[in-house]
Design brief:
By secondary structure, the chain is of the alpha+beta class. 38% of the residues lie in helices and 27% in strands. It contains 5 helices and 7 strands; from the N terminus they run ββαβββββαααα. It has helices at 21-32, 113-133, 149-159, 164-172, 176-199, and strands spanning 2-4, 13-18, 36-44, 53-54, 57-68, 74-89, 98-103. α2 packs parallel to α3 (149-159), α2 (113-133) packs parallel to α5 (176-199) and α3 (149-159) packs parallel to α5.
């Protein structure tokens, strides 16, 4: 298990710089095996040194690219394969271990294209507004979603400029339609806050 201060969604990718000795050991073992690991959000504490508190729902990830760096460090690109729930945390040695069960990625089947389009439009508008404050880049015209709506639904979540805890809420929601409705609402609310901030000269 690899606790982080960010959320990885299924069907999306995340670059990682691995430097802590215990996680260097984790990478070595993963590369010697099926290349899979679990990623969960740290709810309190730090990524380095242990002693953190972690959420119970995370993402099953696969190491897609692994480049060794000087000093035993690694540059990784991992992709989200599915969701998982932690049943029990086990030993912390040589790195965090847990008993987990896999969760359905999208138990309600394929989302409608309308729901995906509405969420994407809300995310695009919010990021455009945030770009005026320098807090997030706008989505470029080249940003494309997967043609599969079930995959695109997760990609929209990854593009949304939300806090890690809001992202965790999205990950835990059961069902694409409910998740897309939530990311739309969160994005619209954030957009209203940004508009008010801009109007006040912030």
């Amino acid at each position: 298990m690899f606790p982080l201060q960010t959320v990885l969604f299924p069907h999306t990718s995340l670059p990682l710089h691995v430097f802590e000795p215990r996680y260097r050991s984790l990478v070595a073992d993963c590369l010697a095996g099926d290349r899979e690991l679990g990623i969960v959000l740290i709810s309190r504490g730090s990524e380095v040194g242990g002693g953190d508190q972690r959420v119970g729902v995370g993402t099953l990830a696969r190491i897609e690219l692994a480049s060794p760096l000087p000093g035993g460090r690694w540059s990784l690109l991992v992709s989200g394969v599915g969701r998982l729930r932690v049943v029990e945390w086990l030993s912390e040695e040589p790195y965090p271990l847990a008993e987990v069960v896999e969760l359905a990625v999208g138990p309600d089947g394929v989302p409608t294209e309308g729901a995906v389009a509405a969420a994407r439009a809300a995310v695009r508008r919010t990021r455009a507004l945030l770009s005026e404050t320098g807090r997030a880049p706008a989505l470029g015209s080249e940003t494309e979603l997967d043609p599969d709506p079930a995959v695109a639904a997760w990609q929209v979540c990854a593009l949304s400029p939300l806090t890690p805890f809001d992202a965790q809420r999205l990950l835990e929601i059961e069902g694409h339609e409910a998740r897309l409705a939530e990311v739309t609402e969160l994005s619209v609310t954030l957009a209203h806050d940004v508009v008010r901030l801009l109007a006040e000269g912030g």
